Hints:
This protein is an alpha/beta fold and about 200 residues long. It has helices spanning about 20-25, 30-45, 105-120, 135-145, 160-165, 180-185, 195-205; strands at about 1-5, 15-20, 125, 150-155, 170-175, 190-195. A six-stranded mixed sheet has the order 2-1-3-6-4-5. The radius of gyration is 27 Å and the shape is elongated.
Amino acid sequence: MANVSVYNIEGNQVGEIELNDAVFGVEVNEHLLHMAVVNHLAAKRQGTQSAKTRSEVRGGGKKPWRQKGTGHARQGSTRAPQWTGGGVVFAPKPRDYSFKLNKKERRIALKSALSSRVADNKIIVLDAFNMDEIKTKNFKAVMDALKVSKALVVVDDNKNVILSARNIPEVKTASTNTINVYDILKYDTLVLTQDAVATIQEVYA
Length: 205
């Protein structure tokens, strides 16, 4: 099992924690990591794009000229795709881009993402992260003390911490039940509280 240093919010080391290899020490499955990221981004797509086919464009009911004898190529409608103002061939229509990723695959992908952060020494564990008031300045001071900028901070539903981080563009907060592979890989550093580590290990071990 991997041992990781535990820090306080002043940035001082106060101990060590042993991480469960069943969650933080698995073999990284790059294929499932990729699938999880694609699944996440696909689910975020609005899918509201739309264009009209030739049958939906207004007008074009009259044949522009007679079939034979004009020297022109034959044409049946001014709303055919080759005409300006005509319909679109295979026009995009509103659709749902999301697809299903099996529960077992999602779990392996999340474990792989967590394990990759540990292997790359891009994980910081805090003994606790509590704030008495909603204050962005105080949250920024903690990030500066830990010497991190672009970070995903995972806490056990601490409302003041979550609200204090909203105005910091390169920091995202999440609770233990909302973490996902995309965010873990996107941010340079993963910051977890000891309580969050315990909850994650209890759920995914």
